[in-house]
Amino acid sequence: MRRLTYAEIDEARHSRGKTALLFLTDRCPVGCAHCSVDSRPDSPRIRDFRLFEQVVEGLCASSYGLIGISGGEPFIERRGLSYATERLRDAGKDVSIVTSGVWATSADPPEWIKKVIRRCGCLILSTDVFHAAALPDQRFIQAARAIAGQDVWIVTQVVDDEKAGALATGLLERALGKEWADHAEILRVPLLPYGRAADLFQPIATTPGRRFGACHLVRSPVIRYDGSTSACCNEAVILGRGPSALRRQCDDADELITAFAEFDRHALLRAVGDVGPGVLTLDPRLHDLADRRFKSICDLCWEMVDRLGDRADDPLIHSVANLRTGALG
Predict the structure, then answer these.
(1) Which end of the chain, C or N, has fewer beta carbons within 10 A?
(2) Which domains, from first to last, does the chain contain?
């Protein structure tokens, strides 16, 4: 597999039809306070492997060239992760996995883990003060060495603050030496006000609806191991939050491909991804949302989908979407 930097992943996520996310499991043994999906050691995991195989086959048959794998902690699903990465690789897909490195309990991980790593373009390896509260530094160090040892790129994901960045730099130097940048990069990401992380946002800042720009990530659907499929990258949707119009239940690969096509041609979702919900408040049916304040672009999008989500081919939305974003001033 070719190495994938985060810039390449981000470019794919900003392009329609290039990437999708496989939500492999709800379960995670780490229990970080900033988890946006509230994954726990006793959360659900794959039960119907036949259905899961159909989910993977649908992804293999799709047009998406890059498939991310997340959860929960993907590495607790040995059978599912091994199957998915092998099939996706054989189908010519690029693969990335988001992991805490909880699996790196020794300096030399099991061969099945090495095989999974080798099938990936990169691993997004998280570490910050929240992970450090549950995982010893040595776990990250051993994970980073195992990934680099398979010549796979490491994207070290941390919360967006100076302390977390310094922590990651120090750990990478301990793991890979002064030349760690030959093997890894550091990605700072904001906390999301969902799952357990919602308790960290007091109070939550809000923004007027008209000020929100395009959400390119609405172009990247999420597929859960049980066939539940959502139109965008917000994993809360796949777990049942937000409007039902953003979700489909797929029982085989063909239904999954159909769901992808429905999401792709949905007028409102395309407009949110191309020009943003702020511009859409020019629509008289949505104009009252222009000055209403929202804690996130997702909450505004959900409100719009609740109102108009059943109008997949709405001519007025198509017209508003063709306006320049600058029309709002």
Answers:
(1) C
(2) 6-202 (3.20.20.70), 228-328 (no CATH)
